[in-house]
Amino acid sequence: MTPSRSRARGCLLGLAVGDALGRPAENLTPGQIEARWGRLTEIEPGGGTDDTEYTIFAASLLTRHGGALTPEDVVAAYREQILPYAGGPMKGAGFSERGAVQAMRRGFAPPLTGRWHPHGWSDGLAMRAAPYGIFATGNPAEAARLVAVDGSVSNAGEGVHGGAAVAAAVAVAMTGAPVDEVVAAGIDAVPADSWTGRNLRAVADGGDPAGVIAVHYPWTDLAPEAVALAFHAYLAGGGEVFESVTTAANLGRDADTTAAIAGALAGAGRGEEGVPERWRAEIGPASGKCLPAVAGRHVRDVADELVQAASRERG
Amino acid sequence: MPSGDRADRVRGAFIGLAIGDAAGWPAVRHRSLVMAPWSRRLRRELDVFAEEHQVTTLPVPFALNLPVEPLAVGPSDDAEWLAWTALRLAEARDGAAPGREADDGGSPAPYRMPGIGGERWLAGYRDLAGRDDLRVRISVRNALDNLGRGVEPPASGHDNPHFFDDAAAVRAVAFGAGHTDPVAAARADAVITNAEDGVHGAAAIAAAVALLAGGATVGEAVDAAVAELPEGGVIRHAVLTALDAARAAGGAFAAVPALDAALDDHVYSYGVSAAQTVAVALALTDASRGRLAEAVPAAACLPAFADSAPALTGALTGAATGYAALPEGWRETARPLLGCGLPDLAGADLLAIADRLIGGERSC
């Protein structure tokens, strides 16, 4: 199925507004968020973060290589676009990206690059998984296969499962399917006997989102937790962009990533017009503050390019 | 020069682990946990002071007006977990009848522990899950949280942010020393708190300790440990890389910079991955030909790994030479436990616990 331009734009705009809304709430508790904003509903100055910029990076892999993407292509893109800057601060990079870069600097090849560091479970792949769902609209298995190619370079185990869940769910959301079907597609894309699978089923069954939070761990970038919180927010928001994104952002933890994922799912379902106009107005070209190679790229244009690449792929 | 006495080598594994545990810089921070919380709060404030005033004089744990004894050199959390595991193992073995494994297929994959019984072994952890006075590793904390909310092994160790750490590798010393099926038992114990490399690392340590306790050479023990690590896995890659690096360096202390370069990316906030610390322990044991006084100080010179790599290194080298061959100045120091992680063990004698495990050995 060729992706709809409006849904593709809605997906990446939803991701970008979630990233931007959630950014100041990252690592805060719901109580701290309430004390500071009441309810966080307005994007603060400063824009998005790594979620948007790494998503643009992932999209560029698909527009260049399409469904033939290989782990070697991903490594080549890291070497061209990320490693030249790795001598300095990699702003916004998570443990998995930095760890994968160090593994590449050691000369390792995938999948060892994604396993050498202990952050295989990072949500760094889930945060950039949406383009794979757009590219493989209507084909969640293909979306999950493609995102795992990217993931083999930087992640392992639960981090790859988290990416697969998001990519597969976006692939189904891009068809306009109901919220429950979108969530079911995400669950189907991961092994039943996995942390991500258990957490996703818990929130899909209406469980308290607090039950998926690893409270005795100081970092919040665990994919099984972040993806489950994002799916919870998408369900609680009924698939509407505003409700899904604000629900995720106001839960705190890895709020920019959870709100970005919730926004991508909801935006794919509701299309560009479903993203509140005042939020859309806040999204400009990427600054490149995390990934200089994507500076100047606007997610709306990136979405259009993904639609073109998907159309080419289908001949 | 391996000791001729199995009991002496088991004692060597226990006290060697405690010596290594005591030798790393984190030990005194763990030991300060028995002191009043305000003393640690002030130390954190002194860290901030050093940052804000741009002075390089860094604070150390201090007593001010409190008793000073906890801050003396001595073992901390790793020795306590070895003691806890050995006591549970001895109790299970000394019991009237071994616990029965669930074998009726009533649940899809019942938890099993060879020679003891799954539920019987798990009971010790279930007791800990209900406690609020413990200070434990991130892997153990999350595993106990999982058990407390009904997430059973192996998910308790798998759905765990530090599934890869070496908490189970430390406990595996007890299985290597005192279980008739040491590797299978160490793996069964490990899945409660860990998965993947965390479990393989435990198997490697159990295999090496079991062979050394039986009088094998260091080379045979290292080979047996490596044989537990799956082809293509990170922990095998790390161990083989570390062994090569330490051999090329020509000695344990000489290998410190090479091990740092080979194993540590300095990206993450904790240095407890089994792939790293088990690699350090095996490489330094090999490079020192089993001499604790060369290997443990070298492990303690790798700051990121200094919480547990010296302890694992001490266990292997202590098992290689036996207790009698360990440095006299350390042997007594390493025996008394403080209870800084597991308060019930305050005042316990680790050597007596090793002897209890040795005493019951033939009844299993």
UniProtKB/TrEMBL annotation, chain A:
Pfam families: ADP_ribosyl_GH. One of its GO terms (molecular function) is metal ion binding. Transmembrane segments: none annotated. Binds 2 magnesium ions per subunit. The keyword Kinase does not apply. Mg(2+) binds at T49, D50, D51, D254, D256, T257. Keywords: Hydrolase, Magnesium, Metal-binding. Its cofactor is Mg(2+). This is ADP-ribosylglycohydrolase family protein. It comes from Bailinhaonella thermotolerans.
Automatic annotation (TrEMBL), chain B:
Mg(2+) binds at D307, S308. Keywords: Magnesium, Metal-binding. Coiled coil: none annotated. Binds 2 magnesium ions per subunit. Its cofactor is Mg(2+). GO terms for molecular function: metal ion binding. This is ADP-ribosylglycohydrolase. The lineage of its organism: Bacteria, Bacillati, Actinomycetota, Actinomycetes, Streptosporangiales.
